[in-house]
Amino acid sequence: MENVTSRFLRYIKVDTQSDPKSGLHPSTNSQLEFAKTLAEELKSIGLSDVSVDEKAYVMATLPSTIDKKVPIVGFVAHIDSSPDFSAKNINPQFVENYDGGDIVLNAEQNILMRVKDFPELKKYVGQTLITTDGTTLLSADDKSGLAEIVTAMEYLIQHPEIKHGEVKVGFTPDEEIGEGADFFDVQKFGADFAYTMDGDVVGSLEYENFNAALAKVLIKGRIVHPGAAKNMMKNSMLIAQKFISMLPAFDVPEHTEKYEGFFHLTEMKGKVEHTEMEFIIRDHDRDLFEKRKLLIQGIANQLNLEYGEGTIDLIVKDQYYNMAEKIEPVKYIVDIAVEAMNECGVKPDIKAIRGGTDGARLSYMGLPCPNIFDGGLYFHGPYELIPVQSMEKAVEVILKIIEKVQKL
What gap in Å lies between CA 197 and CA 10, rounded to an integer? Predict the structure, then answer.
């Protein structure tokens, strides 16, 4: 049986970054090719009903080995890597028996991970860390989740003496660009509930997340010669600046934490005659989330009154909602995960996600789906790393959840 580390190292060699601008499903062909490879691997280890569709969704079944009906549990991870930083030619580094000091990622380019910048490193003294070489991300988000699920399934197949109910496996594309659940067939998947293996550090368990919306602000200006511009020119970039100034100054990611929501300006480009901005709007509280959308619409309305109708075109699109609303009625699935972690020697850290996962949207599609740790740290950049021991614990927790479900 292949161990979780070697499987993870094999997976990260494939560049599966998603692309938010492609307009395709999946957004990159590399995801589809990797999905086909994963499907073949699931067949080879002995799973049944393995399928991969043209949009890169992979599903499979581990048949039940018990003679009673129990809930069907599923495990979900995503195929794609973040488009925020390069995932080409990942060159993983091993730090054996980590001593708690600064880590040299790339001596030639003088790229270091300093403990003063990453104090959480101190928690992993004595463990084996897998890091980048400082020039790419590691793709632990979510290649580690994939490796953990497949390794757990292979373990159960190789150990038929371990009895269990039916288990479903699902892998999705394009989670990193918010499209991971767009074409997920919940009915075909056939699980009563599931867990996404897409959290962060060991022990994390999440069933609350942001309500989320995307806001596009299109500003129409008027350009004339600056020498004759008085009372005629409308500089769309300055109107954009005013728009930003009318938002709450401290309701931004860099000044918020825990359950605090925000407006986050993610993109801005413009000239005198036309400026475009994109914001993401986030809040855990649904009422506050709706008020944030009303506020940004009110700003657009006010500026249209000031600068003329049609100056501001605002498009707001909801992306996902807080899964807590769907998890609370079946809270026992969270309790199962808590008990499983405790029995595996992992201290559960229940917290709200300051973001979203496939699990949030799947929960609203009829598949309650809390989020469990995959073990990684510092995702989406060159300082991403994962302790080997955290991946191993994730596999243990998956196996323990399956054990507990078959006793329901």
Answer: 18
DSSP state of 372: E
**Alpha carbon separation from 83 to 8, 18, 178, 257 (Å, rounded):** 19, 6, 12, 24
Rg over alpha carbons for the chain, rounded to the nearest Å, is: 23
Q: Where in the chain is the domain with CATH 3.30.70.360?
A: 211-320
Taking the alpha carbons at both ends of the chain, their separation in whole angstroms is: 29
pLDDT range class, residue 180, cuts 50, 70, 90: very high
Q: How confident is the model at residue 178 (pLDDT cuts 50, 70, 90)?
A: confident
pLDDT digits (tens, 9 = 90+) for 97-122: 999 999 999 999 999 999 999 999 99
Q: What is the pLDDT of residue 1?
A: 66
Q: Which CATH code fits 4-209+322-405? A: 3.40.630.10
Which of 196, 186, 156 minimizes the C-alpha distance to 47? 156
Q: Are 206 and 184 in contact (CB under 8 A)?
A: no
Look at the block and give the residue holding tokens 């929960």: 363
Third-level CATH fold of 211-320: Alpha-Beta Plaits (3.30.70)
Greater confidence, 92 or 320?
92
Catalytic residue, from 175, 176, 374, 392: name it.
Answer: 175
Is 175 among the residues known to form the active site? yes
Burial of 163 from C-beta contacts in 10 A (0-12 / 13-18 / 19+): middle
Where is 104: in which H helix or E strand?
strand 103-106
- Is residue 80 annotated as part of the catalytic site, yes or no? yes
Take residue 133 and report the two structure tokens written for it: 């070489």
222-280 per-position pLDDT tens digit: 999 999 999 999 999 999 999 999 999 999 999 999 999 999 999 999 999 999 999 99
Is the pLDDT confidence value at 194 over 90?
A: yes
Model confidence pLDDT, tens digit, residues 295-334: 999 999 999 999 999 999 999 999 889 999 999 999 999 9
Residues of the chain with CATH 3.40.630.10: 4-209+322-405
Global pTM reads: 0.88
Which listed residue (41, 80, 141, 384) is catalytic? 80
DSSP string, 293-311: HHHHHHHHHHHHHHH-TTS
